[in-house]
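Request: Give me one sample?
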Amino acid sequence: MSTTTFDKIRQKPFLSTLREDRWWVGPAAVLGGLTAFIVYGTWAGLQETYYWVGSGGFGGYLAPFDSPTFFVKEGLPGVAPLSHGLFGSWPTWWPDFLPASPALIILVFPAVFRFTCYYYRKAYYRAFTFTPPACAVGALPRKRKAGYLGETGLMVIQNLHRYTMILVIPFIIFFFYDAFLAFFRSGEFGVGIGTILILGNPITLALYTFGCHSWRHLIGGRRDCFSCDARSKFDHGSWKFVTKLNQHHQLWAWVSLIWIVTTDFYVRMVSMGQITDLNTW
């Protein structure tokens, strides 16, 4: 792109562009998708009931937004058995003005991980803050006395991504355990639609998490030589595998997001009796 063309684009008012394609489709889809996720996640986080499907004994379906279940408030419909709570019954010190919802405690960790994700930053910077809405499209005008701050001001919080990534990895382990439980109900082995959905949840989340830019750097980004010794060669092989996942990071970001919402909604609907789970039990 010539300097003259670039200057013309930069001087264009908000949403003005020389592009002739449907550049707005991507930002609009992101805006709708992330808004729907925020609305559903908020609703699910406030629910105290109907996040578990089970008939007693070993096994059952657990809504992923409520996994791992740290505490269980007994006596409510559609809640996990007390034995499923990592720390037992609901604590007495919990404030009365807050719902006794396991999801309310859990969602903050994966939410911060996704919020600080390198792909999602680009997505919501464009869709929500219009900085800019798309490449070569006029950005929303802003008055900056100190100039462009990037992610050095308030958005320095984005640096939490490398740490929240470590906090999210245990969720993958918990989700695989939930998938194991989903193959049983009252100790009897069987496969249902919920089983398939719950099993796919940790798989898609793992593909998204281990394709992360931070994980890629952790695996091989600090190496100056990939052929100096056996350890370097092993790291190089791992780095190449993660790179393949990283090349489709955007895809797995959306697949894992849609999958976990679909799974959570399905389990809640089955728990409420709105959906009958087709299975082999």
Observations:
- Residues 47 and 101 are 6 Å apart (CA to CA).
- The first helix runs from residue 3 to 10.
- The radius of gyration is 22 Å.
